[in-house]
Each structure stands twice: as structure tokens, then as C-alpha cells.
Design a protein that fits this description.
single chain, mainly alpha, Rossmann fold, Tyrosyl-Transfer RNA Synthetase, 2 domains, binds adenosine-5'-tetraphosphate
Length: 339
């Protein structure tokens, strides 16, 4: 079992990142550790430069996101925790895979279409080739399990296509370079939506802070955001089918379900018939309780820059070692001569 996933150190991590991805980093880290496997979690700082950014903020956010991950339960003693920029093999392997990835494949990526919008010509090349770097990130470590939110499923399928084509084109059946990775997507929290619009995903780059719960929000802020979340005037239905066409209600019930490890059906069996005046405070309290220990741990860690840098340096050194053989294999397969 080889678990690999990454998170961009852009802005503050939110509930979508937590329920969609980070909770599963911790779960799979523990499973991998118990079964003699390996878990790699990285700060995707090389991905972060695909969009306009402030260099000083990127460095600060990289440390802050490291503190957040550790506060959420990512344990540097069990997981190789590092930032991409300290492991040149990610960028090297991306270049090698650029020869295999097809323009048509990248053109079909919905994230590229969404982020580029109507201004494709004005986007960085890095935003277009972002999924090839993602493929390199996971293939470098022979990932078997990749915990991600639903929005990344298409990119992971692309990583599999790239791996398969590379293996077919350049390797014998007995000696493939890459393992084909599988996505690990949480059923209850695959896609947490904005609190202001139930049809848009909760995202760090949404200009409205009221659209998301940040993992470092205070209990008061959490309660205020939940109470102000957009909803409809109807009470909650008692069965899941009654949530159809009610995107905002469905989102809040989904969050409650993910936080309690239950299904939406179970939550509705208990809360069906309640108006949002009752359900929202219950959800706000549950959220505040869940995030309280994370907040406390984050506050302890965030100012210890030296300790955070030491975690990243140690993780990077392990990652460089772990990726060495696969990178060498890819160079050899392509017929590239190295000393
Ligand atoms: N709303 C979401 N619901 C479930 N999972 C989500 N993820 C992100 N948003 C949601 C998952 O979080 C992991 C890390 O994401 P990322 O920071 O690397 O990239 P992102 O998907 O681009 O995150 P954002 O918040 O949406 O950032 P911006 O606004 O910059 O685009 C991934 O596994 C992702 O699936």
C-alpha cells in the first residue's frame, strides 16, 4: 500500500479540503503504517506557481499548511511529509511525462476549462500542464492509493492514462516503469459545496470568506457562517430523496453526515422535519467541536518555523530517496543516457 496525495499551500485550508482529502490522509496513513506500506503527503508548492502568486505569501503558506496538516493528524513519524520544491524529481519526471501526455487529453480537463475560462491565451503554460505534474507526483512513488476529493478524479484518470501509455510505449510487460494508481474518494464528502451557492464547490479562491469554513476559524465565526449559509425556507425532509433539487440543504446535511461518520439518510431520520433555525445551530456546534482540537494544535505549531522547516527537510530527504529508482527507470526506458 503506497499512499500519495498533495495539497496546494494557497490560502487557508477549508472544510472541503478537510473532509474531502485530509481526513483520508490520516486514515490511509495509519493503514499504510500498520501494514508496512508507505504514505507520502506533500505541499504542492510547484503547483501553486501555476497561478499569479506572492512569493513571500507562498513561503509563509507552505509552513502554515504544514502546521495545519500536522494539527489534523498527519504524523511526520508515519508519513513522508514534504514540499515538492525540495524534491527536484517531481519536475524532472513531469518533463519526461510531457513526451507521453497528449494535448487533446489536457484540453479535455474540466479544471483547466473552469480556471482558464474565456482567457486561455492569457494563462500560464503551468496551469495547462498542471495535471502532468500531478501524474509525476503520484507515479514517482508508485502510488497505489490516492486520497482526493471528487474534483480531482479526472486528473487521476489522466495519470493512469499517462502511466499506461508510457508503460506500453517504452517498457516490456515484465518491467513496467509505473504502477497504475487508484483514487480514494470519500463517498459522504466527495464534494463539499460553497455555503453561499450549493452548486459551486467550496474553494480557497472564492472571493467570499463567508462561502467556506476555514479550519482555523473561531467557534464564533463558524457559527456565524453556518447561520448565514444560504438555504431554502422548507424544513428538512425525512428521507434523502427529498433533498433532490435542494442543493444547499443537501450540502449542509452532507457535512453533518461526514462529520459524524453517518449517511445522509441517518441524519435525516434524526433531523427530518426540523427547520434550519434548529438544524444550523446543531451543525455549527458540531463543526466547532470537531475543529477545536485542530485549532488548538495549530496555534501551538504555527509559530515554530524551525520545527516546521525541520519536518519538511526530513520528509524531502526521505522523498528524494524513495523516488530515485522510479526516476532512473523512466530515464532508462526513454533511452536517455546518464552518467
Ligand atoms: N469542496 C471540496 N470538497 C471536497 N474535496 C475538496 N478538495 C478541494 N476542495 C474540495 C480536495 O482537497 C484536496 C486539496 O486541494 P488543493 O488545495 O490541492 O486544490 P483545489 O482542489 O484547487 O482546492 P481549492 O480549495 O478549490 O483551491 P482553489 O480555490 O485554489 O482551486 C484535493 O484532494 C481536492 O480534491
Amino acid at each position: 500500500m503506497r499512499v500519495v496525495s498533495g495539497i496546494q499551500p494557497t490560502g487557508k485550508p477549508h472544510l472541503g479540503n478537510y473532509l474531502g482529502a485530509i481526513v483520508n490522509y490520516v486514515k490511509l496513513q495509519d493503514e499504510a503504517h500498520a501494514s508496512g506500506g508507505r504514505c507520502f503527503i506533500f505541499l504542492a508548492d510547484l503547483h501553486a506557481i501555476s497561478q499569479p502568486h506572492d512569493p513571500t505569501e507562498l513561503a509563509a503558506n507552505t509552513r502554515e499548511m504544514t502546521a495545519t496538516l500536522v494539527a489534523c493528524g498527519v504524523d511526520p513519524a508515519k508519513t513522508v511529509l514534504f514540499n515538492q520544491a525540495q524534491v527536484p524529481a517531481h519536475a524532472e519526471l513531469q518533463w519526461l511525462l510531457n513526451g507521453t501526455a497528449r494535448m487533446g487529453w489536457l484540453n479535455r480537463m474540466t479544471q483547466w476549462k473552469d480556471k482558464a475560462g474565456k482567457n486561455r491565451e492569457g494563462q500560464s503554460v503551468a496551469l495547462f500542464t498542471y495535471p502532468v505534474l500531478q501524474a509525476a507526483d503520484v507515479l514517482l512513488y508508485q502510488a497505489t492509493h490516492v486520497p482526493v476529493g471528487e474534483d480531482q478524479k479526472q486528473h487521476l484518470e489522466l495519470a493512469r492514462d499517462i502511466a499506461q501509455k508510457f508503460n506500453n510505449d517504452f517498457c516490456s510487460d515484465k518491467d513496467p516503469t509505473f504502477t497504475l494508481p487508484e483514487p480514494y474518494i470519500p463517498p459522504a464528502a466527495a464534494r463539499i459545496m460553497s455555503l453561499r451557492d450549493g452548486t459551486a464547490k467550496m474553494s480557497k479562491s472564492d472571493p467570499s470568506d463567508m462561502s467556506r469554513i476555514s479550519l482555523t476559524d473561531s467557534p464564533e465565526t463558524i457559527m456565524k457562517k453556518v447561520k448565514k449559509a444560504r438555504t431554502d425556507p422548507e424544513p428538512l425532509p425525512s428521507e434523502e430523496a427529498g433533498l433532490e433539487g435542494r442543493a444547499e440543504a443537501k450540502n449542509l446535511v452532507g457535512i453533518y453526515a461526514a462529520l459524524t461518520g453517518r449517511t445522509a439518510g441517518d441524519v435525516l431520520a434524526e433531523h427530518g422535519g426540523q427547520g434550519f433555525g434548529v438544524f444550523k445551530p446543531a451543525l455549527g456546534e458540531l463543526l466547532a467541536e470537531t475543529l477545536k482540537p485542530i485549532n488548538a494544535r495549530f496555534a501551538e505549531l504555527k509559530n515554530d518555523g524551525e520545527a516546521l522547516d525541520a519536518i519538511l527537510a526530513r520528509g524531502a530527504s526521505q522523498a528524494r530517496e524513495e523516488g530515485r529508482d522510479t526516476l532512473a527507470h523512466a530515464y532508462r526506458a526513454l533511452g536517455l543516457v546518464r552518467g
